Structures are given as C-alpha cells and as structure tokens.
Amino acid sequence: MAAAGALPAEWIKNWEKSGKSEFLQLCRMLSENKSHENVTFRDIQQALYELANHVVKGNLKHEQASNVLSDVIEFRDDMSSILADVFCILDIETSCLEEKSKRDHFTQLVLACLYLVSDTVLKERLDPETLESLGLIKQSQQFNQKSVKIKTKLFYKQQKFNLLREENEGYAKLIAELGQDLSGNITSDLILENIKSLIGCFNLDPNRVLDIILEVYECRPEYDEFFVPLIESYMYMCEPQTLCHILGFKFKFYQEPNGETPSSLYRVAAVLLQHNLIDLEDLYVHLLPVDNAILEEHKREIVEAKQIVRKLTMVVLSSEKTEEKEKEKDKEEEKTEKPPDNQKLGLLEALLKVGDWQHAQSIMDQMPPFYATSHKPIAIALCQLVHVTVEPLYRRVGVPKGAKGSPISNLQNKKAPKQAESFEDLRKEVFNMLCYLGPHLSHDPILFAKVVRLGKAFMKEVGTSKKLNSEDRMVKFQSDGNKQEDKEKMEILFSCLLNITDQVLLPSLTLMDCNACMSEELWGMFKTFPYQYRYRLYGQWKNETYNSHPLLVKVKAQTIDRAKYIMKRLTKENVKPSGRQIGKLSHSNPTILFDYILSQIQKYDNLITPVVDSLKYLTSLNYDVLAYCIIEALANPEKERMKHDDTTISSWLQSLASFCGAVFRKYPIELAGLLQYVANQLKAGKSFDLLILKEVVQKMAGIEITEEMTMEQLEAMTGGEQLKAEGGYFGQIRNTKKSSQRLKDALLDHDLALPLCLLMAQQRNGVIFQEGGEKHLKLVGKLYDQCHDTLVQFGGFLASNLSTEDYIKRVPSIDVLCNEFHTPHDAAFFLSRPMYAHHISSKYDELKKAEKGNKQQHKVHKYITSCELVMAPVHDAVISLHLPKVWDDISPQFYATFWSLTMYDLAVPHNSYDREVNKLKVQMKAIDDNQEMPPNKKKKEKERCTALQDKLLEEEKKQLEHVQRVLQRLKLEKDNWLLARSTKNETITKFLQLCIFPRCIFSAIDAVYCAHFVELVHQQKTPNFSTLLCYDRVFSDIIYTVASCTENEASRYGRFLCCMLETVTRWHSDRNIYEKECGNYPGFLTILRATGFDGGNKADQLDYENFRHVVHKWHYKLTKASVHCLETGEYTHIRNILIVLTKILPWYPKVLNLGQALERRVHKICQEEKEKRPDLYALAMGYSGQLKSRKPYMVPENEFHHKDPPARNAVAATVQNGPGGAGLPASLTINAAKLEESTAEETDKLKEKTQGAVKVINKTANATPKVTTSNGNSASNSKIIKEKDDKEKSGKEKDKEKKEKTPAAIPEAKALGKDGKDKPKEERANKDDKTRETKEKTPKSDKEKEKAKKEEKTPKDEKSKTVVTNAESKFAAEKEREKEPSRERDIAKDMKSKENIKGGEKLSVAGSLKSPVPRSETSESEREQKRRKVDTHSSPSHSSTVKDSLSELKDSSAKHYINHTTPALSKSKEREVDKKDLDKSRERSREREKKDEKDRKDRKRDHSNSDREVPQDSTKRRKEENGTTGSSKHSKSESPSDSPRSNEKEKEKNKSKSSGKEKGDSIKTEKMEKSSSGSKKESRHDKEKTEKKEKRDSAGGKEEKKHHKSSDKHR
C-alpha cells in the first residue's frame, strides 16, 4: 500500500477541529491547479485513497469520511469516477486480507457513499462478489453469465447482408461500367453516379463494390487519372478504414508459403499511398514479414559474412577442403525452398517506381540500414528515380564534350520529386536518395558516372569561384559577389559531396567488378580535391567502410584471398600476367590489395622489384590510393622503427623506403602527401622517416649519396652535370628528367622545398640532443648521417633542378638562414652556394651582352666585376655569423670565398672527361661490330653516343674557361684574405676551425675541395699563410677529430686526409717537384716574420731534406693517433680510425716500421672483436687485408727520409760525443733506426736516454740566455749525471758496433716484434729526439769545433735565423694546437706532464710565441745574433733557445735545424768528420756498454710489467712524442727496459755537447773556440740556474714571461 504521506496523523486526530477543513482545503487546492492535469489527477487520487484507507484501518469513522466526501465530490466533474477507482483498489486490497474487520470497514464506507457514485460505475469496477455483499446485484454467478453473453454479441457476431437480396446483374453492370472505354468524355463523377444507382437498384454491398473497383484498377493501371479521383469520391460514402482493410485483405490472400503477390497490387497500393487515400501506418501492419523477422535476417547475413571471412583466412588442409565443399552444396540445396514474398519490399519498389519518395523513405527507415537497397530490384528502382531527378542538371553541366547521351523521360506524375535544376537542388533530394542507396549504386554504373561527373562539374564551378585552402582545412571561396550566403552554401554542398563520395561512390566502386573506367572517372573528380581530403576518404574506405556491410565484409575477404594467391606466385619472370591480375583486383579494391602487398614487401624485400614492375596496369586513382597506403604503413604506430638491438633502423622501414623510391619514380603518383608526412615527422623531431625522402630523391632525381664512391667517381662529380650523370654514380641513371620534374613540381606547389631543407639542417643537431637521448650511440650516428646525407642529397637536387628565379626566391640570405632559422653554417652555405653561382653567372652574361668585347682579359674583368657585385652583400652578411675578433685574422671576403666555391670552380677533371669520352668511343666501336643489331637501332645508338661525346667535350671546354676565370679572380683577391693581426698561428687556427674542419666532413666532394683549397692558397703565395703550419696542424693529433665523427663523417675526414697526404707525398717524392712547388713559396718560410713580409732569404725556407723529416714526423703522428684509437676499446674510436685508415691507405703508411706497428694493432682488434662486435671485426679484417697488399710498397725509414749509409758508423759517436753535430741530420735519424736494430731493450733504453737529453736541452733553451741544459732536477743531480754520462757513452759505442754488424731492416723488425705496442711511438720519438740531441751535443766535441770553423765560411747569420724561425713557427703551431678546442684535453695533459718534468719550460716557450704584440721577426733574429755574440762565453743561449723550440716542435723542428746547417757542408766533409768521430767514440763506448748491459738486464726484470701498460697510457705516449720524458724517473715508467742511470748520463752528455754545439752554430768562430773550452764546466751550473728560473717563470704570469723572453732574445 502506498504510504499515507499526504494526510498528516494530526489531521486524523483532530478531525472535527481542524483536520476536516485542512483536508477540504487540500482537495480544493488540488482541483483548482489546472496547469499539470495528470499530476493533479494523481494527487487527488492519492488524497482520497488515504482518507478511505484511514477508515479501513479504523482510524476514522465512515460517517465522517462520507460527510467530507460529499463536499469534495463537487470540486471536479470526474470526482465520482476517481472515487470509484479508489474503491476498486481498496476492494482488491481488502479482499486479499485475512482481517475481517478491515473488510467490514470497507463495505460500510462504500454503502455510506453509494449516493455519491452511480451504481453502473460501481458495477463496472468492483468485483461481482463485493457487489453482491453491497446488495447491488442479487447473485454474482448470474451476473458473470450475463456479461459473457453481451460481450459475444458485441464483438464476435458477424452481420452479413442478405445475399439473396443482392442481384448478380448489378455486379455485371458494375463491371461493364468500370471496364468501358474511358477515352471519351467520361469522367469519374459520371461513373460514380452510375455506381450509386447500381448499388441502390441492385442492393449491392458497398464494400464489395469498392473491392471490384480496386480489381478493375489493378487491371487497367494506365488510367490513374480516372480511377484515383473515382476512389477518392467513393471513399466519402464509406468509413475511412474500409479501403485500407480491403487492401490488407488482398495482401493477406497472398501470404501463403508459395504465394506471390502480383506487382499490380503493389502498384495500386503505392498510387493510393501517394495520393494519401490510405495511411502507410494502417497498411504496413497488414504486410509480411514483420519487422523483427527482417532484423533477424539482417543479423544472420552479417554472421554468415563473418563465417565466410573466417573460412577464407583459415588454413585448410586439402582433405578437409572436399568435405567442406560437399557440406556447402547441401546447405545451398536446403536454401532453395522459397520463403514467402517480402511484401514490404514489393510495396517499396512500387512506391519508388511511381516516384513516391516520402513514403518509400519512411519504409526504408523501418528497416536496418541498406537492407532494402541490398535487393537489386529496389536498388535499380531507386537508381531510376535518381536518374530522373538529376536529368536536367546533368544535361546542362555533366555531359562530356562530344557525348550525345540518351535522355531520360520524366515521370508522368505531379507528386514525384522535383527535378534538380541547380547544384543546390541536388542537396534537397538526390544526395538523400544516394545515401539510402549506399554501396548498391554499383548496380547502375551509368548513374555512378553521372554522379561523379556532376561532382566534377561542381568542383569546376567552385574552382572558378573559390580556392581550396588546405592549410585551414576550410574551403575558402572568393565568389564574385563574395556573399556570405553563397559561400556557406558552397561549403555545405562540398561537404555533402565528400559524404556522398565516402558513403556511396567508394563502397559502390568496391562492389563493381573491376571497372577501370569508373575508377578513372572517379579520379577525374578526386584530382580536384586537395590530397588531405582524398587521403581522408581513402582512410575511411579502407578502415571503416568494409566493416559496415555484410557484402563488403565478404568482398574484403575474397580480395585478400585473391591477393595472397597472386603474391605467392609473383616472380620476376611472370611480372606481366601477375601485373594484369593485380590491376584487375585493384580497380575495385585498391586499399585492401595494397595493404596486403605492402605487408609482404615489409617482410620480403626481394619482392620490391617484381611488385613495382607489376603495378603498371593500375589506374590513376589506384596510384593515389597506393601513395596513401604507403604513408599509412609508414605511420603505423604499432611498428617499431628500430631493430631489437636498438642500433639499426628496422628492415621493414628500409624496405618500404626503397619501394617508395622505386614506385614514385616509375609511376606518376602525387608526392605531396608523402613529402608533407616527412616534414611533419621532422617537425615532431623524428628523423627516421628521412630514409624515405632519401630514397625518393635518389630514385627520382638520380642523385645518389654514398660514402663508397671511388676516387674516379668523385673526380667525375667535380665536373659538369653531364659528366656527373655519366661517371659520378654507381648505376647509370637514365630518364630521370620526368620524375625529377614531378618531384620539383610537388615541392614547389606545396612550398616544401625550403622547409624540408631547414628542418633537416636543424634536425641534425636534434638527432643528437633531443632524439638521441635514450638511443644507442651507433644508432644516433646512423640517424645523424642519414639526416645529413639526405640534406646534402636534397640540397643537390634543388640546386640542379630549380630555376635560378625559383631558387633565389625561396632561399633567404645567409645571415637570415643562420641567425633567424638557426641553420648550422655549413648547411646554410651549402644551400646558398648554388644561388651565388647562379647569380654570378647571370650577372656575367648580362655584362657580356652589354659589351661585345671578346678578348680574354675583358671577359675575366667582367667576371670579376660580377663576382664583386654578387658577393659584396654576402661579405657584409657573414660578419654577423662570428665574433668580431675572428675577422682580425681572416677577412670576411676570404671566409665567403672559401664557403661559396666548389670543386667545379677550382679544377677541371680532365682525366674523367677523357675516361668517359673513351668509354663512349669503345661503345661506338662495339655497336659497329655488333652484327645482330638492326641498322636503324645502330644508327640511333651511335647518334646518342656522338651527341653525348660532343656534350662532354663542350662541357669540359666550358669548365676550363670557368676555372681560369675563378683562378684569376682568386689571384686578385688573395692579398686581402689573411689579415693575421694576431699571429699566423692564430690565422691558421681560425682557418681550420671555421673553414676546413666543418666543410671537410660535409660531403666527400667537400673533403676533396678542402684539401685542394689549402693547396691552392699555398700555390697562390697567399700572404700570411703558413702552409707548413697548416699541414702540421692537420696531421698532428687527429685523435679528437676522429673520435667525434659519425661513420660517414669519418669516411669524409679520411678522404680529406688522403688528399692532403697525396699533396705532401708528391712534394716528398721528388726534390725537383718540391723546389718547383714549395721552394720559394711563403708557405714554407720557417721564420715567422712580421705580417706583411713575405720575401726572405733562401735560408729562411725549409729545404727539401728537412721537409722529408717533417713528413716523417707527420706519419709518425698519424701512427701514434691511430694506435691510440685502436687501443681505447671504444666502439666509435675503433670504427672511425679504421675507416680513416682505409681511406688514406694509398699514401699511408709508407714507412715499414709504422706499417708493422699498425698491422699488429689491427690484428689484435681482429682477434678481440671477432665474437663481440662483428662489424668492427669486418672493418678490421678488410683493412688488414688491404694493408698487407700495400706492404711491398712500404720503404724502410732511412729511404723515407735521408740517412746515408756512411753515416751509420758515425751514429754512435755523434750520440756520445756529438762531434758531427749540425752537419749530420741523417746520421742521427739512422742512429735511431739502428738503435732499434740492437736488442729491443737496448733500443728502448737508448731512445729514452736520447729523449731525456733532448728534453733537457729543450728546457734549457727556453730558459735565460746563460743557461745550457738542465735535467729538471736540482743542482745536486748534476754530478751523478756526469758519471752516468760516461757510462752511457761506452754503452752507446757498443750499440753502434752491433748495428754495423746487423743489416738494417731485420733488426728493425726484431725490435718491433719484441717491444710490441710501444715501439712505433717510442721509436719515432726517439729517433727524432736523437736527431735533436746529436745536433745539440755536437758543439762540444773537437770535431764539432772543426765543423764550426768550416761553417764560419757560410753565413752564420742566416743559419741562426733559419733555426729560430723554424723553431718559432713550430712553436706557434703547437700553441695553436693548444688553443684548438678539439684538442684542449690532450694539451692539458701534455702541459701537465711537461710542467712536471721540465719545471715550466714549456710555458715559457709558449709565452714567447704567443706574445700579443706582433714582433718583427727579422729584427728579432738580428738581435739574437748580437745576443749570441755577447753571450758566447757565459752560455750558448741562442742555440739553447733554438733547441728548446725544436723540442717543442716535436721532432720536425729538430730535423729542420739540422738540415738548415747541412747545406753548408759538403757531403764528403761530413763523412770525414763522421769517421773521425766514430773512431774516438768506439773506444769509449765499448767500455761503457759493458756496464750498461748489466744495468739493463737488472732493470728489464723489474719493469717487464710496466712495459705492457705503456701502450694504453696515452699521456705517456704524448710525453714521449713531445720529448718530455726528461727526468730519469719518468723514463723508467715509460719504457721499463731503458736504464734510468744510463739515461741520465746520456742526458748529461747531450747537454754538454749540445750547449757547445749551440755555441758553435750561433756564434762567430773565434768566440766559438773560446766558448767550447769553457762550456763543459759552465753548462751544469747553467742548467741548475735555468731550472730554478723556469720554475719561477711558470709560477709567475704567462704574459710577463712572454714579454721577458722576447725582450731577452731581442737583447
């Protein structure tokens, strides 16, 4: 029971006082509330119910209730009915209760209220038993019987007319009346009067008459105009439902299992519906099947479709196949029993035929989507209706030119849909009809074509009045009136057209059986859409449409099945037949087919070629769909772009990329989408997809980017376009003209050319700093290379394919590129370079036209003028790229010139041109000899070859003229290039840092360019350019540059070094070449004079012999760096150095022992990496094999730089006593070689000793003028040193003897073998050091004095100058090295070790060179000579300074020094001196050697372990190289086999010798003689002083030192 919520308990308690009035008030209020009728009705019911309920419960007396109810009953008219309802509910409730009292209360209440509710109402609503108890009926049973009888009479008895009363004649007359000829003046009104008469006369049943009228109408359907008004008038006499019932009865008649409803009946019903004579809802219920059955059938179809799909995708074994087929046959036979007609569909078809679209639409809405149109007759009827509706508009705008077309007659029906006259009308009805058709438009290809043509016409109209702006994804129109309304209408129409395409056209195409014409027709409309819309449509088609219809689900499965069948059988051999099958399949279902094909390509890359070839039978639409499918496959988020090892790009991506390239090149597919995809990926900071761009550009434009280019190809790449195409690429790339044009158009039309370049240039660093975070270093390198290579390739494509105007219009100026777009400088110049070239050539042509002067000079002058015009703004622009101090050393003009030229401008590759021309000649000869070739083809081929040959020759000539002009221009510019306001050294640093290094790793051609440019600057005799310093910088310590390269950069860096080495090797190979190309060139001046001075004496030049020493030093440096990198164990170091070494193999290693050292290290790598890192193993093995093959071309060291045989004997002596000193450079180096030959231990020890000595000398050299040499130890050491020295001398003599006995080469090998890794580095250092030492030592011996006397004759001043300059130039180089960022760390280490050992000596040296004030070099050398004269007695300061610098120069300077002095003596004199030296020294050395040997053996044991450690210790190596292992302690650790004692002795000797020798060199003879006698004593004392002073220096400010020293020297 409902809770008594409405009546509060207080009301009941105080009923008489207040409750009654409250209740009445409530009821009155509820009754008056008219606003919510049903709500108040319920509330009143509730109030009355609760009142009565209180009576039943006994809370209220029935009299009280009846009194209040009598008042309430007046509030509403229907109150008595409401009260009866309440009694009815209480009757049911109380009858269920067992408590009798409540039932009694209820009956009393009803009795009390009988006067309020009528008996009849109560009899209707109360139970018969209750009525009996109330006394309203006598017996309930009788009452029940009576009610049943009445119901039967009312509802179940039929009233029939008396058939006997009807006369048949009446019906006969009726039929005659209706069947007469209606063509005359007979109207429906007339006939209706007759019918009425017949009914009255013959007592006819009016319903039957109506039935007969309908029958006759069925038989005479053509008389619509007669029958419809007749029925309409007749219906005024009948009940409205009658007509519907009669029709329904007719339809029922045919609902037997095999019944077939006649179409005439459907037509009559349709016409009546159209004229609204019956309601569809009334008729619809009479039709079968019921809606639920239709829904079930639809669901069943979907399930069946899915089962078919499952069957097709399942792998079925052959035995199961046959069973399955039998089962399917049985099922089909069962299905043949026909279900009864679907009357709803029949009626629908009829409605469509008569053109009643409204009713047809409402029937279709009752059914599942596309259920109705999936029945062909309905689809065709609807298509027919659309044909009729679009006819006028199609005739006006859609018919193609020249086509007649068959006009379609109009429906003779005023109520049919209005025909479309404009595009706006299409929206009203036609688009709606098409949407109901959906994929079943496929039944009518003609209508399909019409709709597409209308769409095309609409887009054409829109095209004239609007612009599709794909950026805003909005259709922007600029209509003539520019009315907002028109614009909106157009937009709506366009979106409708897209919807129709999506929901109707594409699904219909799917169901058409390979109709290529429809596909092309559709493309005619599609190509007017921007690609964004097209791709969206394809996406819906591929991913959604196929799942929306059972039929399409089946088609999709069948397509995949067929695609699998074709792909399994596709090979290179059957491309044509398979291609045709693919074509057929693709016309209707391209998305599904391509999706499957691409999935196969991603797995098997060997399918790419056959698939690309087999796609030639596709339509334009299919190609476009293919582009979309490719992009979708690329963007697949589920696919990993990296392999599991995270170090390489996944193979699926590589396969797709190369497929992309091939397919876009071969077929005319629109590229915009793909290019935009790559750009979007780059914007998102993802560079993986650049692989696609790289492939597309490579295939379409024939521009190949590979690091594997041979030197021949590279050479060809420096020529013109024709030569590049013929000889520059691996594959002969033909016919790229069309495809590259297509690529260019796509880039320009969508403004992607520059954005892609800039994004790539920015992404290079993004790869490292953003993208590369978590990735493996190897992968980051790969991505960086890919990004860079693609940029180079893409830039190359733009440069060669864009017209000058296009290019200049798109590429901003260099400062904008760098400062606003943050493009790295190398990339910015790379993009701007073609622009400058275009600009200059166009200006040049203008000037030539202006004046016809044909002389060569005029031409050059014009060329130079045009260069100035174009480059002047560039010179201004580049100033903002770097800090102002940069421009102190190099001019913006030089910087811009360097970055704007290319190899094409510097040299003509004559060899390449000749090679290609010869190839063509051979080809022509082959064509002549070919008997089988048909003559016309022969002729064609020969013509082609001749034309090519002429083109090449013409191009060569053109390039030659161009190069001559450029060189002429450079000649004029060169004087302003290098300003060198700080130092030459600084200038070289800036040149390398800002020009050479960034560009040499940009591309292979740039690497070659950089090397050529350096040579060119040298050949042009550019002021302030020190070629020596430049080369020295490039070859010294390449570790950091190598370590910081990616794989491809290492390859380019290797090429650069290779070209640099080639030049150096050429100069090294022949004295004449050297004299001719370097002899008196300012680049080979060894005195760094004040800027602006470039003349100088012959003696200031580096002579040939010393140059060879320098080259040896460079080779040694390269070996040292290589060994270091190979031993780090770092992947990048090892990989890069192996790449570099492979590239420089033609020119390095040339020296046997260096080659052997490398070979051992590489062999070790091979063993270690075989299992761990197979790629390193492969690289190492490759290099190792090539290295072995080069071995026969390697030479022993003494052949590489001068060591004549007689000098061998002298070696020992020179080392001990230093007699032959200045005159014997060669002997010293040989000495080193021989030392190697003696036992490994001895060599090492000796080397160390010599190094020690040299180092010491170096130190002293730096120190004050009085000082000779100091060991870096305190004075107390000096005595010990003397003793040791003596011992050492004897040791050395023995060594020399041994050397003489053994042939040179073998011992070298032995030494190398024994001492493993260490030797190559140490040997070199030792040799070089020894050379220095000998020079330094010699002055003290008598022989030296003799020599010195002889030398007196030669101008000593010159010698001293040379020495100084040499030293200084080398120092400068060192310092610059220190400045170079890439080498900072190395230098820091070096500095530390040197400081420890030498006590600050290095710093002071550096100081003297770095002094900021440019000092006049000439004056300096003069002052030095004076100073030398002054100083001779106290100490040979000048020579010590020289040596000092020499040691800093590491080897090379030492060699220079010696060689400078050499020329003064004739060789014969040298030899005599050598012999004397040897005799004396032998005796001493024998004694010493005995002692030494013992020492060595002891130490050997102690230090055998440390020997192994040496190679890994790069700092030690550096020290050795720099000659820094001065003190005996250090020497021990570095090469354990050296005896520290002997070392120190050696040093002492060397010191004393050198100090003497220095005097000899630097001073006039008289002084020299005096000094030599006193020098020995003084030297040690001086050493100590120097040491102390140096320590002080290093602690003090560097600047002070610089000034102090320079002033010292000047004094």
Q: Proportion of β residues?
A: under 5%
Instruction: Report how far apart the termini are.
Output: 129 Å
- Please work out how many helical segments DSSP would assign: 77
**Order of adjacent strands in the largest pleated sheet:** 1-2
How confident overall, as mean pLDDT?
75
Largest sheet: 2 strands, antiparallel
Query: Care to count the β-strands?
Result: 2
Measured as a percent range, the helix fraction is: over 70%
| Radius of gyration, taken over Cα atoms and rounded to an integer in Å | 54 Å
- Which structural class best describes the helix and strand composition? mainly alpha
Q: What are the low-pLDDT stretches, counting only 5+ consecutive residues below 50?
A: 468-481, 1090-1096, 1204-1470, 1503-1580, 1588-1592, 1594-1611
What form results from the Cα inertia axes?
elongated
Structural description of this entry:
The chain is mostly helical. The chain is built from 77 helices and two strands. Strands 1-2 form a two-stranded antiparallel sheet. The C terminus is likely disordered.
Give a brief outline of the structure.
Helices cover 73% and strands 0% of the residues.
Short descriptors:
mainly alpha; elongated; disordered C terminus; single chain; 77 helices
Strand and helix map with partners:
Layout: H1 9-13, H2 15-32, H3 37-57, H4 62-72, H5 79-96, H6 100-112, H7 119-125, H8 128-134, H9 140-155, H10 168-179, H11 188-202, H12 206-219, H13 224-234, H14 240-253, H15 263-274, H16 280-284, H17 291-313, H18 318-335, H19 343-354, H20 357-366, H21 376-398, H22 423-437, H23 445-465, E1 466-469, E2 474-477, H24 484-511, H25 516-526, H26 531-543, H27 550-569, H28 575-588, H29 590-603, H30 608-614, H31 620-634, H32 651-666, H33 672-683, H34 690-701, H35 711-717, H36 721-728, H37 737-749, H38 753-771, H39 777-801, H40 804-810, H41 814-819, H42 825-850, H43 856-878, H44 892-900, H45 903-906, H46 910-929, H47 935-973, H48 984-1000, H49 1004-1019, H50 1027-1035, H51 1039-1043, H52 1047-1069, H53 1071-1079, H54 1104-1128, H55 1131-1143, H56 1152-1172, H57 1174-1190, H58 1197-1200, H59 1207-1216, H60 1225-1237, H61 1240-1262, H62 1277-1301, H63 1305-1315, H64 1318-1337, H65 1342-1353, H66 1356-1379, H67 1384-1398, H68 1401-1410, H69 1417-1431, H70 1437-1448, H71 1452-1461, H72 1467-1509, H73 1514-1522, H74 1528-1534, H75 1540-1562, H76 1565-1595, H77 1598-1610
